[in-house]
Amino acid sequence: MLNRTAEALFWIGRYMERAENHARLIDVYYHLQQDEFNHSDAFDAKQHSDKWKRIVDALGSKASFEHEYGDYSEHTVLLYVTLDRENPNSLVSCVSHARNNLRTLRELAPTELWEVLNSFYLWLKDQNGEAMLMDSPHKFFSQIKTWCNMFYGSAHSVMPRHNEWSFMECGRYLERAENTLRILHTVQPALKLTSIQSYPYLQGVLKSLSGYQTYRRLYADTLSVERILEFVVLNPIFPRSVHFAFHQLVERIRSFDLSEKQLKLAHERIVRQISKLTAELDCIEVSELTCETKDELTKRLLDSCSWIGEEFGKTFFLDGVVSA
């Protein structure tokens, strides 16, 4: 498989996962914001602005947003992260990038994938930001998640389990691990508040990952920072935990069918490094997830995600560098 094909598939996986994660995060934050506004006697403008700032922080585009918009408000943030074509990480940009990559593979990729992704893009580009805000942001973001699930369903149903599939899945799980860690990193300040004050943010983390019901089945009514970190970072069976994503990433990389000796050696090195990372996660005790260590752990794992992306670029891709 040509390295430009591998790179295109890898980024299709990343961009589609990024689009779904953006929709999940924004939808939950929007409802948190509405709930707090409805139950609050006084409007705190700074607190309101800080909460929308966390979304932009979680998406890793704070400097770009402030240069273009300046103030953090519901209106500016929602437009920036959804339909702003000047933002390379907006929903419409992510779907457009994934579509452009898939278009270069029309002769290789199943027709069903193109039909779903092209229809998704055509629907999304016709959406109006003002109408979305006036109508129902929740309805809009639910539709985004539905389109993403249609794409994943088609991929699982029709793609042969060869290198093409493995590269797309690698991009997907690397992006998933990074997005989960970004969400945790963004809410760190809120987790240092009192139990009552931090409760909405703890609940928001779980809901943004579709893990609220699963968490309640495992831990009943115990909603604490340590338990949520255990669930979101270390749980081996929750599909959106960091542990699960890294283990799936290792499995997909190991499944690569490579013929060149030099490429095999580089491939084995990446597998060893990520395996060390997963082994470290396996050995972490819940008692170690204290307020002092959780932020350090999150940052270290985010750095590991960046390293993995760079190594993929140097090893498998034409340009030698991967950039989100």
TrEMBL record:
PANTHER family found in the cross-reference section: BLR5612 PROTEIN (PTHR34595), SLL1039 PROTEIN (PTHR34595:SF7)
Entry-linked InterPro entries: ATP-dep_Glu-Cys_Ligase-2, DUF403
Lineage: Bacteria, Bacillati, Bacillota, Bacilli, Bacillales
Protein name: Alpha-E domain-containing protein
Pfam family, one: Alpha-E
Domain of life of the native organism: Bacteria
Domain DUF403: 1-317
